Automatic annotation (TrEMBL):
It is an enzyme of class 3 (hydrolase). It comes from Pelagimonas phthalicica. SUPFAM superfamilies: Phosphotyrosine protein phosphatases I (SSF52788). This is protein-tyrosine-phosphatase. SMART domains: LMWPc (SM00226).
Amino acid sequence: MTRSILFVCLGNICRSPSAEAVTRAKALARDLPLELDSAGTGAWHVGEPPYGAMQVCAAKRGYDLAPLRARQVTAQDFERFDLIVAMDADNLRNLQDLAPNSARAKLALFTDFAPQTGADHVPDPYYTRDFDGTLDLVEICADALLDQL
Ligand code: 4NP
């Protein structure tokens, strides 16, 4: 049974904190008790809150990213979480490289839960600047993931 999920992107300031907050809201609405967190494969933004434009866009949909702080993925995460969900294929490859032999977490690509979207990754709005497009996809993937738990 999946009780804990870690969402992972590169910086942990745009995609994965959004995935965490959106999935938390949707899990709450479904009365599903889940432990949720997010982290980045990179360390550039450790300790920082989510990116300003991402926070503003998420807040308009009722998702509060403000309390979140960026952190880097650790080896312990592979013991602590049932499922680690990557935002793109680079993140997934980095996770596979980091995974200790004792890892119990399953690894997955967020978009694989929602094949109907045709997306094979969650685009990084830090570069695309399409924060709403990323949130649209994150909302669909979060619902699809919860449907499949
Ligand atoms: P994220 O976006 O992986 O969705 O948090 C990024 C934010 C910052 C950087 C890379 C990706 N950066 O290199 O600073």
